[in-house]
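Is this the right way to post structure tokens for a design question? Let me know if I should format differently. Anyway, here goes:
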């Protein structure tokens, strides 16, 4: 059961081979057994989850099931879920009970899915290792001495350790793709605007995008079908016809090979110095596998992509400094217990409620937006952002998808990059440009590097090419078994 795909779970539920209550209980028991070591979940609420499972069982019995009805899905703790504690990994929101559902949560509820719990994350989604969470770091199930990646590290670890059937993440600069890569699972960041940000706690609004994280491309398609869609409560939500993201999964382009005619662009900047040799080996092997599937390779260049990390670390903190000003001790969350006056209440609440990385971002953001520096930093970064996006537009004239590594290295050890923020920021060197351009990007497992840790292959598509990218990933997963590998010592024996 634990290794079943979402499609198989859906069939088993509809055939009444297992009930949603049984399936939910199975995962809750695994969380009880394994979460103390992994720390992937911040909050579970067995009673609420089982009540949802009972409702799903009634739908299933009445023949009213949709593809995800009755399936337990974990939610990154950045999504407000009515009645659930929603912390965003921060002391600031440690005791915040959300009074309403995010659009994404609503969509899963409408699909009859079971909310299994809230997954741990870097504080306010700022980080690449999960070490900035107020609730402690998540462990990588492949090696507990290593990070799971971030910021959606709790989700990635939970999916890899089979603590849930699938889960959600958000990606501002790589937070779906990088932890997916480091934990050996699949993750998709959709085109900006495809999934509503309503009720998703804001970090950098022009970059934030929610997406699915699961064990295969096929599972991602089913999840994205539920998550995507226009929502008038998010002014950047795109008004488009509803798509079936699974429709192209088994599409054959023609000829004898499944991906005949597919042009894969390899950006020379992604294959330069900085990438670990073990990562390079696994990514190159994946490219060879794609050639066997019928794809052709095109050498491309993204000349401005080298500027994406510095541009991001101007723009994202600028937006964060504005978004996080709402956490003032009055309207939400933590308030300092002692203060002399209103100003001191603000100061102490924010000083005590936020962690070091969040404070660093707020200070950088305030600085680059301040009078005299705005033109030099913020405006300049916006201009380069435009050039970075143009590079992709030019590249997609020559190729259908772009491929490369998701992250420069496999999962690193706890504390390895903690003291050096710039080293940590470079974890997202291959992912950030995609957010700056608003493009869809995904990561799928493509092998193992040194220390037997998983390596991720990044697939970048043109705007709204999610269905095509899922096909490209699915064909690879039909031909290989990297995505089926599971970490040892997580109690899968006999399942
Ligand atoms: N690691 C990047 C950061 O720290 C990206 C985070 C994200 O995508 N939420 O900002």
């Amino acid at each position: 059961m634990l290794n079943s795909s979402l499609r198989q779970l859906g069939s088993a539920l509809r055939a009444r081979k297992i009930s949603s209550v049984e399936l939910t209980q199975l995962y809750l028991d695994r969380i009880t057994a394994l979460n103390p070591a992994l720390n992937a979940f911040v909050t579970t609420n067995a009673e609420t989850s089982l009540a949802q499972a009972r409702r799903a069982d009634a739908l299933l019995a009445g023949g009213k099931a949709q593809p995800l009805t009755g399936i337990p899905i974990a939610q990154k703790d950045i999504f407000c879920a009515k009645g659930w504690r929603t912390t965003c990994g921060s002391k600031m929101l440690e005791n915040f009970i959300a009074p309403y559902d995010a659009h994404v949560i609503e969509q899963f509820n409408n699909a009859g899915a079971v909310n299994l719990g809230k997954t741990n994350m870097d504080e306010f989604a700022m980080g690449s290792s999960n070490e900035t969470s107020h609730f402690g770091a998540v462990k990588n199930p492949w090696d507990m001495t290593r990070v799971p990646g971030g910021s959606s590290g709790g989700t990635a670890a939970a999916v890899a350790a089979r603590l849930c059937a699938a889960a959600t993440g958000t990606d501002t600069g790589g937070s779906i793709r990088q932890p997916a890569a480091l934990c050996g699972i699949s993750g998709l960041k959709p085109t900006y605007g495809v999934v509503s940000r309503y009720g998703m706690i804001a970090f950098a609004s022009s970059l934030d995008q929610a997406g699915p994280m699961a064990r295969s491309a096929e599972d991602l398609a089913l999840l994205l079908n539920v998550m995507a869609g226009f929502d008038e409560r998010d002014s950047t939500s795109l008004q488009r016809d509803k798509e079936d993201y699974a429709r192209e999964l088994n599409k054959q382009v023609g000829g004898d090979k499944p991906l005949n005619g597919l042009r894969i662009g390899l950006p020379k900047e992604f294959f330069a110095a900085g990438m670990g040799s073990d990562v390079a080996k696994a990514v190159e092997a994946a490219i060879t596998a794609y050639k066997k599937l019928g794809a052709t390779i095109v050498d491309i260049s993204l000349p401005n992509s080298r500027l994406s990390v510095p541009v991001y670390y101007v723009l994202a903190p600028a937006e964060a400094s504005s978004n996080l000003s709402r956490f003032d001790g009055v309207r939400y969350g933590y308030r300092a217990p002692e203060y002399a006056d209103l100003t001191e209440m603000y100061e102490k609440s924010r000083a005590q409620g936020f962690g070091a990385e969040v404070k660093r971002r707020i200070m950088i953001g305030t600085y680059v937006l301040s009078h005299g520096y705005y033109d030099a930093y913020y405006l300049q970064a916006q201009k380069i952002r435009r050039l970075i996006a143009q590079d992709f537009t030019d590249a997609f004239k020559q190729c259908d998808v772009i491929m490369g590594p998701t992250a420069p290295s496999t999962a690193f050890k706890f504390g390895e990059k903690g003291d050096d923020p710039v080293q940590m920021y470079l974890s997202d060197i291959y992912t950030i440009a995609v957010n700056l351009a608003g493009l869809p990007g995904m990561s799928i497992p493509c092998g193992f590097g040194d220390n037997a840790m998983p390596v991720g292959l990044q697939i970048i598509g043109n705007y709204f090419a999610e269905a095509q990218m899922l096909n490209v990933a699915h064909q690879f997963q039909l031909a290989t078994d990297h995505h089926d590998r599971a970490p040892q010592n997580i109690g899968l024996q006999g399942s």
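Format looks fine. Someone answered above. Worth noting: The longest strand covers residues 441-448. The longest helix spans residues 374-395.
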